[in-house]
Amino acid sequence: MLSLYPFVGLALFVLGLLGFILKESLVHKLISLNIFLSGIFLFLVSQSLSYEKADSVATALVLTGLVVTLGVSAFGLMLIRASYGAKR
Amino acid sequence: MSLIIPSLLFIPLLFAILTYVFQKYAQMLGVLFVFLWLLLTLIASISVVYEGELLYNFGGFAPPLGISFRIDGLRSLMALLSAFILLICSIYARVYLLASLQRDYFPLLAFLTLGISVLFFSTDIFNQYIALEIIGISAVALSALQKDKKSIDAALRYFFATLIGSGFYLFAVALLYLRYGTLFIDDLALLIENDFVTTIAFIFIVVGLSLKTALFPLHYWLPSAHSNATTPISALLSALVVKTGFFLLFSLYGELFWGIDLFVGKTLSYLGIVAIFYGGIQAFFAKDLKLMIAYSTISQLGYLFLLFVLFSPMAIEGAFLGLFGHSLAKAGMFLSAGTLIYALGTRKISDFKGISFVFPLSIFAIALSSITLIGLPPSLGFFAKWYYLQSAWMQQEWLLFSALLLGSLLSALYLFRFLILSLGSQGERRIFVKEKKIKILEWCGFILSLSSVLLGMFSYALTKMMGI
Amino acid sequence: MLYKGVLWCMAALFLGMLFFMVATMPPFSPKLDTLVQADLAMSGVSHDVTAVLLNFRALDTLLEVGVVLLALMGIQVVSPHFRYKPYTEANTITDIYIAILLPVIILSALYLLLAGSYKSGGAFVASALLAGGIIILKLTKPKLFVSLEKLHLRFLSALGLLFFVGIGVLTLIEGLFLQYPLSYASTLILMIETLLMFSLAIILASFFINAVQDLE
């Protein structure tokens, strides 16, 4: 029962990491990191599928992780803006 | 007694909310909080001594389903140490920082405490991920507290490093959960096998947490973040925040991966050796006082990583004695250096010529810290290195053995460079009006440095309390 | 260029290794899920994910709300750098748009909140929707929340977490931290979710509004 989604998740994981290394702009870096983290979440929830039903604990972990990521990236965006604002 | 563990969780959380909402009383509440926190960790340590390991299931559900906290000797000692450093740094911050910065400082400090407490006590690897994020965000926000361009840019680099680090840790947690179907560390320890998935998860944990602990090739963010933050925060970052990553790595390595590891522990140790010399040489050539102390942190963190190739009980005791010693000494050193920088208005090392005639207490504190960092008796650093050397001798790790001896020499070089300069003759006679404020600041640094030396005399009792 | 090429090749190799790992991984055994299903009756809700989030692993959720509040604190630490004046002008089209859209948003948020107890949904989804509503309102009527006192705003954004911790402390009276008495479990969970929804909506909207607040 090999599904495609875990592989997509891993590909996003690696691409996000690559984007983080290659991109110059700070906003690009942050978005790359978001892609990287989303890849992990997609991988976790799709790999835990059994009999077409998602594992409840894995789903809860992903939901928790998403909210944490949301807070972290909001803070990161504001930090980037503060850094640009301080240049002026 | 069953109240003590939940209060280790909800007291920081409650005070974080209260200090955030009632900004007018933030300073009063914050000082109340750090004293209360020291009291709580003291009670926890004492009850661990008398009752042994404490366990607590949150929500009343036993571990694989719910989340539980465990407090043993080592964890309670780590918490007690961090509470002591938090207390002294907060008193320093209460005097040193502007009132408007203190309003932001105390809620973030309470959240940092919450993260540290959850990271130390939790037995659930996902719960520890959230703790890592809490520590990461609050540390980044604290290092950006000054709001000038330099500190915000340093905080931004730190932010990316810590986000990548916890992302790697999260990936490893996901892999372990998918492979073994549980997040409880004791269950994982029973189930763990040496296969491809586990190895990959292990490597991700090691890379992510070494990034957070600034091990040699991944240390790029540390010098700027630690030297550009405002003084009490530099002390907190160097003394506590980097240690949390190390502690998590140590506990996971000891409980899960020790049996199946073939090469990673060795690699970590050899990188640690490189870090000792790299950090030492950079510190020797640094022109900025705070930058020198930050590079010295990189060098001293290298000693902690030597643990992973030895990993005998004696080496573990040595590593944690070294950790306690470094935390206290480095916090004391940062605080004293910050006092000097505040009084003189300069950070260049060459400007501190002959300063010991004006600020003898601060220079004495830095000298005491140096004793611990170099590893002279009777300090904690001496016993740490002694245990390490014995362990390396018995396991015939001659490279480590010589690195330990040469590393001490190197730290003596860069620390004495500053001390000799400050003890030398004054170029021009400078007169400073010493405010009462500066006296308090000097004493804060002195207490920390002194305790790093004096605690060395109790190192046997400390190793007994660790219970390894 | 060479550096980039080498990086891409390394990434491809790395990805291949991860693919190999997934392909050879033993199938996932949902051990915890069976435990969850067995204890679902004790949780006070009928949806398994909500039960995990707000009962079995409620500590995770508590800390996660803490992270969101912490992010708001962090944002407020660095925010004074970039306040600018938003565009303000009366506009009939946006007025009518808001009058139609806002009630729908509030109703859907409430529905999502209540649906959380028996199917996918819950406080976080509802709060995201509600935060969107608040942001639209703020964008169309920039003067709206300016008179609100900062202290009250901070209190409202911390209220959900405060209530959650408060419930935890109250449950200590006869049990462990966050161990809901079985007969009150569903009521308590619903109350916590409702307050969390309001607080999180305010926090999430503040993330945005902090950036576009007008200079005073």
Helix/strand-derived class of chain C?
Answer: mainly alpha
Provide the β-strand percentage band of chain C: under 5%
String of helices and strands of chain B: HHEEHHHHHHHHHHHHHHHHH
Summed up, the domain count of chain C is 1
Most extensive interface, chain pair and sizes:
B-C, 51 and 52 residues
Give the DSSP E fraction of chain B (strand runs of 2 or more residues): under 5%
Global mean pLDDT of chain C? 85
Count of DSSP helices of chain C? 8
Kindly report how far apart the N and C termini of chain B lie. Answer: 24 Å
Task: For the record, give the distance between the C-alpha atoms at the N and C termini of chain C, rounded to a whole number.
Answer: 50 Å
Provide the helix percentage of chain C: over 70%
Average predicted confidence as pLDDT of chain B: 90
Please explain how this structure is put together:
The complex is a heterotrimer of chains A (about 90), B (about 475) and C (about 220). Chain A has a single domain, classed as Helix Hairpins, CATH 1.10.287. With about 90 residues, chain A is mainly α. By secondary structure, chain B is mainly alpha-helical. Chain B has a domain of about 210 residues. Helix content of chain B is about 75%, strand content about 0%. Chain B is built from 19 helices and 2 strands. Chain B has a two-stranded antiparallel ribbon. In chain B, helix 9 crosses helix 12. By secondary structure, chain C is an all-alpha fold. Chain C is about 70% helix and about 0% strand. Chain C contains 8 helices and no strands. Chain C is globular, with a radius of gyration of 22 Å. In chain C, about 40% of the residues are buried. The model of chain C has no long low-confidence stretch (mean pLDDT about 85). Chains A and C meet through helix 1 and helix 3 of A and helix 1, helix 2, helix 3, helix 4 and helix 8 of C.
